[in-house]
Design goal:
The structure holds three protein chains of three kinds.
Chain A (H helix, E strand, L loop, with lengths): L12 E12 L7 E9 L3 E6 L5 H9 L1 H4 L3 E9 L2 E2 L5 H5 L2 E4 L3 H4 L5 H11 L4 H14 L15 H13 L5 E5 L7 H18 L2 E5 L3 H7 L2 E6 L2 E7 H5 L2 H6 L6 H11 L11 H12 L1
Parallel strand pairs in A: 3-8, 3-9, 6-7, 7-8
Antiparallel strand pairs in A: 1-2, 1-4, 4-5, 9-10
Chain B lengths: L1 E9 L5 E9 L4 E5 L6 H9 L6 E6 L2 E2 L5 H7 E4 L12 H12 L6 H11 L13 H13 L5 E5 L7 H16 L3 E5 L3 H7 L2 E6 L2 E7 H5 L2 H6 L6 H9 L7 H15 L1
Parallel strand pairs in B: 3-8, 3-9, 6-7, 7-8
Antiparallel strand pairs in B: 1-2, 1-4, 4-5, 9-10
Helix pairs in contact in B: 3-4, 3-5
Chain C lengths: L12 H4 L2 H17 L3 H17 L3 H25 L5 E4 L5 E3 H27 L2 H10 L5 H30 L9 H31 L19 H19 L1
Antiparallel strand pairs in C: 1-2
Helix pairs in contact in C: 2-5, 2-9, 3-4, 3-5, 4-5, 6-7, 7-8
The chains are: A alpha/beta, B alpha/beta, C mainly alpha.
Chain lengths: ~290, ~270, ~250
């Protein structure tokens, strides 16, 4: 049984954005300017930047919301799994790319968890005898089997966020795009969502693109980091390489995790030569080494 | 200044607080921390008198809050919500501030000066339309409405959620300046680094119970307390604990401590 | 705040009826109540409504609904008795207000009709899952999914907007706006600025909701998409026949 409706061609880029500039009809300046980036199939990319830097717009370009739903001046091209987003209908792109939006209450369509997950499966015409398996699998992947018959109104913020992810996972997209999914969650629930996405990425090879303010979590879970500044792509690359530009990022008003600031201080003094740590275990190793 | 005496509150399952007893003295910034559903927002609303305890009493300056008039409470306290869009309802920043003042400061001759002062302090311009401003600027407008009447107690419910680091620092720097000028501040906060940087005192909540109250150092040095509330300490304090160091809060202090160890080893 | 218009999960004869039947039955009862002129018939329908509530395993909820409606009914009863002054005088109140047999009759009939019509509709919401209703309307009644989805979404968004409104009120109270004023006009004037934030947040919400469902394949859906199929069986037929019999009876009496 294939994992997705349209498997990616081997070695193909999931996302290829070339010279992309976009200005909303309502905007006075371009929301994004001259963006060039490619995301490989199976990657885990975090997007950070100050408010108004164009983070949401970048996700809209990847899931077909632009140009499908927002009008504006569009230059350059965006390809999703080989399809040009201008030439392809949004619902076709949607069968490759699942989206989890910022406002989770607006996204929910049903009053019971099971129905929420069925909604997309029914719409995309998943064969009847396959649906039960998909629902069970999505619930299990998100660790919420016990919530299946619960009323969505009675769930906590973290549980609701998991339901939203499960309803997308059930569709088996090649890629999932999330816009600040942990905005209103406490540290522990936020970490759970990241762990869940990381599992989905590892087990199914699903490409993950996530916009997030909590940079410490992004560093710990993402493989690549994209830093946006006033509509420009300031940095894009493997997490550790981007973090090596810590000082430059701080001058853009983006704070790096404190363990990364510590790495800078230790490197500048010549006490440590390794790359920046992305979690507490690595930070401890770095500090112990620097003490020698 | 504020005293909770065996306060319980319940509305439906999951969002209750049980038998809270604590008091907040004059001066300082107190942070309420805990997981989602721990009761932080409920406590902050009880403190402002937006909710009334189902049992027990909340005292403000040794007076039962229930006996104080709504207008008195409004004049002496300020409350900032997480989402500024719930309170912004006028078409210019100035009107927005005047709308607040009409309820809290009876003497209209003071209004103009009060508006100007707070707009200057928060770099807002009078004729801007709040709806056209960015998320961070709207949060500053909302903060201005909570402050314009110079309250003695300022309560912030997740003031920095949804803001980027630059806006977050800007708001917190201003709040901490106010505190130095004598405003008592209580804030609900999820970001432990912000709590570490700005709070003097911490109340730890879990499942509607008060797990602990203490200075920022005391609480963050107590791993078992944090674990019970499903929280992690700020990175530098967590790292210091792993390395067996103490008294470290900042990156600079950590660098220095590592330097000393290094010198000691050689 | 717990709303009275909520779905209460269950697995009774009533719950298992086809959602189309569940929405058709209150409509049939409604027609019957308007056609009849016999008070005992209306009383009979009321007993039937309560019986259905008990059969659906939600007696508590039924009585709560009845109590809520009762308050409104009592108010209307008094108003009508006081306003209708024609007919045989039964008693005279101060200020020359008469209580007449005609007034009493019209008032009792009106109030009974009101309860008879509203109670089954409220019970329908309590025993029907909204997505099942949408699917059944599409499959059996051939309603375009767009409309069925609009109906169920409207019902789903009511508590969301009520919650938003409550939080806006709270935010305004926090800055000193005194909603507890006695004067109705003053209160109304205070409510107007509140509508601005509510309107803005609602429009934003609906816009993102529309994009979100579109990206989950909304426009690809067909009549046969629904996973849980609902069927018409003997029970549904019996229920609808019973409704039709009631209409026939109501014409006779």
């Amino acid at each position: 049984m294939p994992w997705c409706i349209f498997p990616a061609d081997k070695g193909q880029h999931m996302i290829r954005i070339s010279d992309f500039t976009f200005q909303y009809d309502s905007g006075r300046t371009p929301a994004l300017q001259n963006i060039n980036m490619t995301i490989a199939d199976g990657d885990f990319v975090g997007i950070i930047g100050n408010s108004g830097a164009g983070k949401s717009t970048l996700t809209y370009a990847m899931n077909g919301v632009i140009p499908g739903f927002y009008r504006g001046d569009y230059y350059g091209s965006v390809e999703v799994n080989g399809m040009d987003t201008v030439e392809t209908r949004p619902e076709i792109i949607a069968s490759h790319v699942g989206s989890v939006f910022q406002d989770i209450d607006a996204q929910m369509v049903a009053s019971v968890v099971e129905d929420e997950i069925l909604f997309g499966l029914e719409n995309f015409g998943i064969p009847h005898d396959e649906i039960e398996g998909r629902v069970t699998e999505a619930l299990a992947a998100c660790g919420i089997e016990d919530l299946r018959m619960r009323h969505i109104d009675t769930l906590s913020g973290g549980q609701r966020q998991k339901v939203a992810v499960a309803s997308i996972v059930a569709l088996r997209p090649r890629m999932i795009v999330l816009d600040e999914p942990t905005g209103e969650l406490d540290p522990q629930s936020s970490e759970q969502i990241f762990a869940l996405l990381s599992d989905i990425n590892r087990v199914y090879g699903t490409t993950i693109v996530i916009v997030e303010q909590k940079i410490a979590l992004l560093c710990a879970y993402a493989r690549k980091l994209a830093v946006l500044d006033h509509g420009h792509l300031a940095f894009f690359g493997p997490v550790r390489e981007v973090l090596a530009n810590g000082r430059a990022m701080e001058s853009l008003g983006i704070h790096v995790p404190r363990i990364v600031s510590l790495h800078q201080a230790l490197s500048e003094r010549g006490w440590y030569q390794g790359t920046a740590p992305v979690n507490m275990d690595e930070a401890e190793r770095m500090a112990r080494e620097a003490m020698q | 200044m504020i005293r909770f005496d065996h306060v319980s509150f319940g509305y439906g399952e999951g969002s209750t607080v049980h038998d809270l007893c604590f008091s907040l003295e004059k001066g300082g910034i107190t942070a309420l921390i805990g997981a989602n559903g721990a009761g932080k927002s409920t406590v902050s609303k009880l403190m402002r008198g937006l909710l009334h305890p189902t049992s027990g009493t909340v005292y403000f300056h040794d007076q039962d809050m229930a006996t104080l008039q709504a207008s008195t409470l409004a004049a002496r306290m300020g409350f900032l919500f997480q989402n500024p869009d719930r309170q912004i309802c006028r078409s210019t920043v100035r009107d927005e501030l005047l709308f607040s003042l009409q309820w809290t400061v009876p003497d209209a001759s003071l209004h103009e000066a009060a508006c100007q002062e707070v707009m200057d302090a928060l770099s807002l311009s009078a004729q801007d339309d709040p709806m056209m401003l960015s998320r961070g600027e709207r949060q500053r407008v909302a903060l201005a409405t909570a402050l314009v009447h110079k309250p003695e107690l300022l309560i912030l419910d997740e003031p920095t959620t949804g803001l980027d680091y630059r806006e977050c620092t800007r708001i917190m720097e201003y709040v901490s300046r106010l505190e130095k000028q004598g405003t008592r501040v209580v804030m609900v906060c999820h970001d432990m680094e912000v709590v570490l940087d700005y709070a003097d005192e911490i109340l730890v909540l879990s499942g509607g119970h008060l797990l602990g109250q203490g200075s920022t150092e005391e609480v963050f040095q107590d791993p078992s307390l944090l674990r019970a509330a499903s929280l992690l300490p700020p990175q530098m304090i967590g790292l210091a604990a792993r390395l067996g160091l103490s008294g470290i809060r900042t990156v600079e202090e950590m660098t220095e401590a590592i330097g000393k160890r290094k010198a000691g080893v050689q | 705040m717990k709303s009275l218009l909520v779905y209460i999960p269950g697995d009774t004869v009533i719950h298992r009826l086809n959602p189309c039947t569940k929405i058709l039955l209150p409509l049939l009862l409604c027609i019957a109540c308007f056609l009849t002129d016999a008070w005992w018939f209306l009383l009979g329908v009321l007993v039937l409504d309560i019986g259905i509530g008990f059969l659906a395993g939600i007696p508590g909820h039924t009585l709560k609904l009845l109590r809520g409606l009762g308050k409104l009914a009592l108010f209307l009863l008094v108003m009508q008795v006081l306003f209708i002054q024609s007919g045989r005088v039964l008693a005279t109140l101060p200020l020359g207000i008469l209580i007449t047999d005609h007034g009493l009759q019209v008032a009792v009939m009106g109030v009974l009709r009101l309860i008879d019509i509203t109670l089954p509709l409220a019970l329908m919401i309590a025993v029907t899952q909204m997505s099942d209703l949408a699917n059944a309307l599409v499959y059996h009644a051939h309603m375009p999914y767009k409309y069925a989805f609009a109906i169920t979404s409207a019902i789903r968004f009511i508590p969301v907007f009520t919650g938003d409104m409550q939080m806006i009120m709270e935010a305004q109270t926090a800055r000193g706006v005194a909603f507890d004023t006695k004067s109705f006009w003053k209160k109304l004037r205070l409510m107007i600025p509140l509508c601005v934030p509510l309107l803005i947040s609602s429009v934003k919400k609906i816009e993102s909701a529309a994009i979100a469902v579109e990206l989950r394949g909304f426009s690809l859906r067909t009549r046969r998409s629904a996973y849980r199929r609902t069927s018409f069986d003997g029970r549904d037929l019996t229920a609808i026949l019973a409704g039709l019999v009631l209409i026939a009876l109501s014409v006779v009496f």
